[in-house]
């Protein structure tokens, strides 16, 4: 149980910067998710916390000690790997027992601890099988069981669900959330899947190109993206972003004109809004352009326009029908709009 | 039952089978011929009059009274003390395998996990040395070994054979280790192992087939070596292969050729037993190296 702090942490390989000046304070019992596209440095950050990668600069503080120079085994962490890293020659039971054995936990306690982890991960029926005889989801649970069998100060999970199929991913995700709230262990979870991040996290750290883009609760990040990168990364579909010009509270772009925006900022502006906030109207819409495509999602339909270079989509009811090429209008009230500086991508406070 | 789509036409099947049978005969013939002939006298096995004598043993019958004789074996093992050579071979092989596997597993693991660029160059050099004919190295060794009075001893040969073998074992084990995911060592290290404990408790159990296969290849290289052993060993320290060669080299004396033939059979027999015994490990080892896991 501990607080985990990263102070000015850098990772460089020669001139290549993997992680750039990473600062973060993770509270005790927090579930923190590192989110970003592949190669953004999120896994490297986690591996530095685990001690599998050296820190070039900065400090990693676990509890009240700097752990930079400690070996992984001395950091009192446990980790779940993307490929699970199960020991193929050991049974499920022995796999889960392995950390107790190497850490010289008294033998008489082993069975109780292992069985507890096996119950929590529902592996009773597979206890005596070897990893090769298990399905992907079961292997994943063995890896989880091995991580929780002792009480580490921090759990690290490196894309633990990415090798599972979509359905299993949803149920395992729920299981991870439930386990973490029962065990109350500080958890750092790496993923590139924004839905996993939104559903699991107490706080999300969005990373890109080795830099933190935004830190906040899932709601913060969804409602107030700090820049166009976060806006385009979070949400399904991602936020619509249209480039144009803002003058006296009126935003004008190709096929779109929104009035009633703040009069303060002006110049080249990127306007953002979410697909589910806008709606199709018959007349007087802010977007009025030929439709590019219509997609049926089941619970809704997605209408897409091509405005300038960008594709803009909004969700409407599932009965809506129109032909590709028809001029379709949509209402984008100023209240649902986010403004970003086109040059820097930074959010402009309204 | 095979479906029509996967069934082969009869001509192809007949051709494939007959090819296999012919190939098998061609491959096995020298061994079987030597084995059979080793129980004959020289006059039969190297008959100038009629090759069939080697099959029926006409002269063997005339000389010894039976169609089979163990004279060649007796001469080689008892009279010429071939058992000494067998013992020397055993000593050389045991040490070569032990040393090259120890260095090979440790070094192969280190190179497989190294992130430094020199690891690649190191392995490339290893391959270059492996490609060299051993005799090119031996000629360079001779003078210093004479000067330092190291020539003729078994341990010198062990050292040279290890030196020649090591690049190969290193290279082979390196590729076996490469196929074991890095996640395995890393999860062991997070679970509480040091690097060495991870290697010993987690990696080596998974690596057994690879270690055994490499060990066997290394054993065969040492066992079959002629160039190094013949140049570096004195007569009393000879291993089996140069000893067989020396039987052949003194054709003036009758019977010595038959010693060589019986010695060849004696030297081949353990190999068969060995390969049979380890065949399961060899097969799984070979595929483990070939297929990316």
TrEMBL record, chain A:
Q: Which domain of life is it from?
A: Bacteria
GO terms for MF: ABC-type transporter activity; ATP binding; ATP hydrolysis activity
Q: Which residues form the ABC transporter domain?
A: 4-234
> What Pfam families does its record include?
ABC_tran (PF00005)
Query: Which Gene Ontology cellular-component terms appear in the entry?
Result: ATP-binding cassette (ABC) transporter complex, substrate-binding subunit-containing
Q: Which InterPro entries match?
A: AAA+_ATPase, ABC_transporter-like_ATP-bd, ABC_transporter-like_CS, ABC_transpr_MalK-like, ABC_transpr_MalK/UgpC-like, Mo/tungstate-bd_C_term_dom, NA-bd_OB-fold, P-loop_NTPase
Give the record's keywords alphabetically.
Answer: ATP-binding, Cell membrane, Membrane, Nucleotide-binding, Translocase, Transport
Q: Which Gene3D superfamilies match?
A: 2.40.50.100, Nucleic acid-binding proteins, P-loop containing nucleotide triphosphate hydrolases
Gene Ontology annotations of biological process type? carbohydrate transport
- The protein, known as: Carbohydrate ABC transporter ATP-binding protein, CUT1 family
- Organism equals Litoreibacter ascidiaceicola
User: Organism classification, top ranks?
Assistant: Bacteria, Pseudomonadati, Pseudomonadota, Alphaproteobacteria, Rhodobacterales
UniProtKB/TrEMBL annotation, chain B:
Q: What is its main location?
A: membrane
Give the matching PROSITE patterns.
ABC_TM1
What's the domain of life for this entry? Bacteria
Report the membrane topology from the UniProt record: Multi-pass membrane protein
Naming one, the record's GO cellular component terms include: plasma membrane
Q: What keywords were assigned to this record? A: Cell membrane, Membrane, Transmembrane, Transmembrane helix, Transport
Locate the coiled-coil region(s) and give their ranges.
none
Q: Name one Pfam family in it.
A: BPD_transp_1
Q: Is the keyword Transferase in the record?
A: no
Q: Does the keyword Transferase apply?
A: no
Q: Which GO terms describe its biological process?
A: transmembrane transport
> Could you list the residue ranges that cross the membrane?
12-36, 85-111, 118-142, 154-177, 198-223, 257-278
The ABC transmembrane type-1 domain extends over: 86-276
User: Where is this gene product found?
Assistant: Cell membrane
What family does this chain come from, according to its entry? Belongs to the binding-protein-dependent transport system permease family.
Protein name (record) = Carbohydrate ABC transporter membrane protein 2 (CUT1 family)
């Amino acid at each position: 149980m501990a607080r985990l702090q990263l102070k000015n942490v850098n990772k460089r390989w020669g001139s290549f910067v993997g992680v750039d000046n990473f600062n973060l304070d993770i509270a005790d019992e927090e579930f923190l998710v590192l989110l970003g596209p592949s190669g953004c440095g999120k896994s490297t950050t986690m591996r530095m916390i685990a001690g599998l990668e050296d820190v070039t600069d900065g400090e990693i503080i676990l509890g009240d000690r700097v752990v930079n120079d400690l070996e992984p085994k001395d950091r009192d962490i446990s980790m779940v790997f993307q490929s699970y890293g199960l020991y193929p020659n050991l049974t499920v039971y022995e796999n889960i027992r392995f950390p107790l054995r190497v850490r010289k936990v008294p033998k008489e306690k082993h069975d109780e601890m292992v069985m507890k982890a096996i119950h929590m991960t529902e592996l009773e029926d597979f206890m005596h099988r070897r990893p090769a005889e298990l399905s992907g989801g079961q292997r994943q649970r063995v890896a989880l069981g091995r991580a929780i069998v002792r009480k580490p100060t921090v759990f690290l999970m490196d894309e633990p669900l990415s090798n599972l199929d979509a359905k299993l991913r949803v149920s395992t995700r729920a299981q991870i959330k439930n386990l973490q709230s029962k065990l109350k262990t500080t958890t750092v979870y790496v993923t590139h899947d924004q839905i996993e991040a939104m559903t699991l996290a107490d706080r999300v750290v969005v990373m890109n190109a080795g830099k933190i883009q935004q830190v906040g609760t899932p709601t913060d990040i969804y409602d107030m993206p700090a820049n166009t990168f976060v806006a385009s990364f979070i949400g399904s579909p991602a936020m619509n972003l249209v480039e144009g010009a803002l003058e006296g509270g009126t935003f004008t772009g190709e096929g779109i004109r929104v009035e009633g925006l703040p009069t303060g900022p002006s110049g080249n502006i990127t306007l953002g809004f979410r697909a589910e906030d806008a709606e199709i109207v018959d007349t007087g819409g802010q977007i009025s352009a030929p439709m590019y495509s219509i997609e049926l999602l089941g619970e809704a339909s997605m209408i897409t326009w091509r405005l300038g270079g960008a594709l803009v989509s909004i969700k409407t009811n599932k009965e809506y029908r129109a032909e590709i090429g028809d001029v379709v209008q949509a209402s984008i009230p100023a209240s649902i709009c986010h403004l970003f500086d086109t040059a820097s991508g930074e959010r402009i406070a309204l | 039952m095979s479906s029509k789509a996967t069934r082969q036409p009869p001509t192809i099947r007949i051709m494939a089978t007959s090819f296999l049978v012919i190939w098998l005969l061609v491959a096995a013939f020298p061994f079987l011929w030597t084995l059979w002939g080793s129980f004959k006298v020289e006059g039969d096995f190297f008959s100038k009059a009629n090759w069939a004598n080697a099959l029926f043993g006409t002269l063997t019958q005339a000389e010894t009274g039976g169609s089979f004789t163990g004279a060649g074996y007796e001469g080689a093992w008892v009279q010429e003390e071939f058992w000494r050579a067998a013992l020397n071979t055993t000593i050389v092989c045991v040490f070569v395998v032990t040393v090259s596997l120890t260095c090979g597993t440790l070094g192969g693991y280190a190179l497989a996990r190294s992130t430094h660029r020199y690891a690649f160059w190191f392995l490339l050099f290893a391959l270059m040395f492996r490609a060299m004919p051993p005799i090119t190295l031996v000629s360079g060794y001779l003078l210093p070994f004479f000067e330092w009075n190291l020539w003729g001893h078994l341990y010198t040969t062990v050292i040279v054979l290890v030196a020649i073998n090591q690049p190969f074992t290193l290279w082979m084990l390196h590729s076996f280790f490469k196929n074991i995911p890095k996640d395995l060592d890393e999860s062991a290290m997070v679970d509480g192992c040091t690097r060495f404990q991870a290697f010993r408790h987690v990696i080596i159990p998974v690596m057994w087939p690879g270690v055994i296969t490499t060990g066997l290849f290394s054993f065969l290289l040492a066992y079959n070596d002629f160039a190094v052993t013949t140049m570096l060993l004195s007569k009393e320290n000879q291993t089996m292969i140069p000893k067989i060669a020396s039987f052949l080299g003194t054709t003036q004396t009758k019977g010595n050729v038959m010693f060589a033939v019986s010695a060849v059979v004696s030297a081949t027999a353990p190999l068969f037993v060995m390969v049979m015994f380890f065949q399961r490990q060899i097969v799984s080892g070979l595929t483990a190296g070939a297929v990316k896991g």
